[in-house]
Write a structure and sequence with these properties.
The chain is of the alpha+beta class. It is 28% helix and 30% strand. The chain has a 4-stranded mixed sheet, covered by helices on one side. The protein is globular, with a radius of gyration of 15 Å. The two termini are 23 Å apart.
């Protein structure tokens, strides 16, 4: 199942920074409690959207384009790449798509802060570019 000719838009809560998503414990790199909580939240959101018919039941297939709008919770300086990875990894974990390597085009735009923060994603099929 792909998004053929259409796009999917979804809003999710602000992610932890990649710096707060992973930690070293006993010589291994593991997800932090914040990282696990965020992934569980995104998985629940995707499951609910599928249950209500807003998303296809199967994982998206094919090459995808993702437009990500970041609405930070405050005006602190942030590196955009510290947040996009957490979002894409959580969507992979939630099985929105088979793997985030399907994302062949990604744009990230930082918008004005919003209380609590938010990420708005628009996902669409990416036609083969030759």
């Amino acid at each position: 199942v792909g998004v053929d000719g259409m796009s999917i838009t979804l809003a999710i809560m602000w992610p932890p920074s990649v710096n707060h998503e992973w930690m070293k414990a006993r010589g291994r790199i593991i997800l932090t409690p914040k990282g696990r909580t965020y992934r569980a939240y995104v998985a629940g959101k995707i499951l609910a959207m599928r249950a209500h018919g807003f998303l296809p039941k199967a994982a998206l297939a094919g090459n995808l384009a993702v437009a990500m709008e970041l609405y930070p919770p405050d005006r602190r300086r942030r590196d955009v790449d510290n947040y996009s990875k957490a979002v894409l990894d959580a969507l992979t974990h939630a099985r929105l798509w088979r793997d985030d390597s399907q994302v062949k085009r990604q744009t990230v735009t930082v918008r004005e802060p919003k209380a609590g923060g938010q990420v708005v994603l628009t996902i669409s099929a990416l036609e083969d570019e030759r």
